Amino acid sequence: MASVDRRAREKNETRERILAAARDLFVREGVEAVSMRKIADAIEYTPAAIYTHFADKHALMLALCDSDFGLLREAMGEAAREPDPVERLRRCGRAYIDFGFAHPHHYRFMFMTKFPAYDPKESPCEHGNPDEDAYALLLDTVRACIGQGRFREEYRDVHVVTQACWGAVHGIVSLYLTHGEDPWVNFVHARESAELLYSACIDGLLRRESAAGREGAKP
Questions:
Q1: Which residues contact 90 (CB under 8 A, 6 or more apart)?
Q2: Buried-most residue among 3, 117, 185, 195 (CB within 10 A)?
Q3: Terminal CA-CA length for the chain
Q4: Which of 54, 69, 83 is nearest to 127 (CA)?
């Protein structure tokens, strides 16, 4: 049994090394420019060894997406249990911000690297299931906010509002990841800036009475 466990552990460690090398190369060079041979060379493996874990580069990319997006959905786990949809939306945004700053390399691959087109049905993650799909969680949360009449009348398109909320957090996280060390601008307090922008976005969506209630709840 010990021998079987060791082989399984070694196989998993090799798989993770391949995924880490692929993530790094995809971010630096783009998915289209990276071959399986280049990934193998990066970790001093033969291409044949890579193919024992992944049938081709497409399968490797899907596995990497499943791993990294699964990590994001896991990071949103506590936020997803919040019963109030507006507060859930706020907490999901904070979890996304924390994820981006805690896992910058994952974030660059997931949201700052162009992927070739693929069928969502190929992913092990169930597309549209909020328990597995982070975007579906955000979409369902915005839909609940609209359904409860929490947002102003002009903000009724669930997809537009969802993508606006996502864009608010993505914009500032990606800005800090790409330019955060630029001495010309003197970027500081990345999380505070990200949360400020996201809170302002949600507050701007709320109906007047909802916003007033939020102000009244402050100590």
A1: 198, 199, 202
A2: 195
A3: 59
A4: 69
d(CA 192, CA 196): 6
Tokens of 138: 């955000």
Give the Cα separation of 190 and 180 in Å (integer): 8
β-pair partners for 206: 151
In this prediction, residue 107 carries a pLDDT of 97
Query: Rounded to the nearest 5°, which phi and psi values hold at 58?
Result: -60, -45
DSSP state of 206: B
Which tokens in the block code for residue 112? 């700052």
Q: Quote the pLDDT of residue 120.
A: 86
- pLDDT classification of 219: cutoffs 50, 70, 90: very low
Longest dimension (CA), the chain: 65
Cα 143 to chain center, whole Å?
Answer: 20
Q: What angle do CA 122, 126, 128 make, to 5 degrees?
A: 115
The closest of 71, 209, 219, 61 to 148, measured between CA atoms, is 209
Per-residue pLDDT tens digits for 101-134: 999 999 999 999 998 888 888 888 889 999 999 9
| The total number of residues written for the chain in this structure | 219
How far, in Å, are 59, 83, 90, 122, 157 from residue 146 at the CA level?
A: 38, 15, 15, 31, 9
Residue 174 corresponds to which tokens in the numbers above?
């990606």
The answer to whether 56 and 105 are in contact (CB under 8 A) is: no
